[in-house]
Amino acid sequence: MGNKSANLAIISNNTFEATKAINLDNYDISSALQTTLEFNELIAIFSSKIANKIPHSAYVYINPEFDLEIKSGVFTRHSCNYALKVEQQQLGELKLMSNHRFSDTDLQVLETMLCCLIYPLKNATLFHQALKMAYTDPLTQTHNRASFNDSISREMSLAVRNAKNLSVIFFDIDHFKTINDTYGHDCGDTTLALSAKWIKESLRDSDIVFRYGGEEFVILLSDTDAHGAELLAERIRASIEHHTIAYGMEAVKITASLGVSTLRENDTIESFIKRADDAMYTAKKRGRNQVVSSK
Predict the structure, then answer these.
(1) pTM over 0.90, yes/no
(2) Contact 213/166 with Cβ under 8 angstroms?
(3) Which has the closest alpha carbon to 202: 106, 291, 92?
C-alpha cells in the first residue's frame, strides 16, 4: 500500500495575509498565478513553481462543480491530498504524488505555498460560475443558444484540423403548442425539462446538448459519423416515446422528430446546421416521431 496523507486546507483571509509576506519573497508563485483564469493552467503553473521545493512526480486536481479531473505526470505510490476551501467556498481537491514519502517539513512548506493558490482558484471559480450561468438555459439546465454558437465554430475547426467526423442532431418536440394549450405552460415547462433530462440520459460523455430555442434542442456529436449519429438519434427518439409525463391527474405522452447532419467538406456553419434543420422538418412532414438523415 502507498503512503497517503489526507489533509484539509482551510485558508482564511488572516491565514493568507500572514503567509503572504513570508512566501512571496521566496517564490514568485503568486504573480505567475495571476496570469490565467483557467483551472488546468493554474494547477500546471503551481506544480512547476513548487517543484524545486516540493519534488513530485504527478498531480491530480478534481473539481466536481465543473466536472473537472486534471492530471499530469507519472503516478507513483506516495501521495498527499488537500481539499481546498476558502470562505466556505469549495475549490476542489489537489493531490500530489511522489516516489518518496512526503516529510512533515514538505507538508508544512506545501501548506504555506497553497495559500498562494487559493485566491487564484477562487477567482477562476467565480469566472467559470459566471460563464456557466451565461451559457446555461435555466429551465432545462442544458447549454443555451449562445453556447452553441461558440461550440459549433470550435468543433468544426477541430474536426477539419484533425480529419475527424462531426455530426449534429436537431430535436423538436411534436405538438408542443397543443401541450401548452391543453395543459398549460407549467406542463409545457415540465415537458421541456424532462425531455432535456431524457436526451442527456441517452448521450455519451463527449456529446453536448443545447436548447436551441422554444421546444427545439440540438445535440453536437464529436468524432461521430452519419451512421453513429443516426443510431443515437433513434435511441433518443425511442427514449422520449417510451416515457410518460405525469402532470396532475393527467398522463401526457410526447414524441419528437429528429434530423441528422454530418459535416461535409467545404461546409459552412450555416449549411451544416441547415441540413439537420431541414431533415427535422422532413420528419415532421412525414408524420412526426421519426428520425430523418440529410442526404
Answers:
(1) no
(2) no
(3) 291
Alpha carbon distance 128, 132 (integer Å): 6
Report the SS3 class of residue 162. coil
- The three-state secondary structure class of 223 is coil
- Residue whose grid cell is 467545404: 266
CATH number of 4-134: 3.30.450.40
Question: Taking a C-beta distance cutoff of 8 angstroms, is the pair 261, 219 a contact?
Answer: no
The CA distance from 233 to 219, in Å, is: 9
Burial class (CB in 10 A: 0-12, 13-18, 19+), 71: middle
Torsions phi, psi for 166 (to 5 deg):
-150, 130
Q: Structural domain boundaries of the chain?
A: 4-134, 145-293
Query: Mind listing the pLDDT tens digit for each residue in 110-137?
Result: 988 898 899 999 999 999 999 889 999 9
Cell of residue 33, nine digits: 498565478
Residue 69's closest CA among 42, 92, 96? Answer: 92
Cell numbers placing 131? 460563464
Angle between helices 269-285 and 145-161 (to 10 degrees): 120
The CATH fold assigned to 145-293 is Alpha-Beta Plaits (3.30.70)
Q: Is 215 noted as a catalytic residue in this protein?
A: yes
- The residue from 93, 155, 215, 230 that is catalytic is 215
Task: Pick out the chain residues at pLDDT < 50.
Answer: 1-2, 11-15, 17-18, 20-22, 24-26
Residue 184 CA neighbour count, 13 Å, CB half: 5
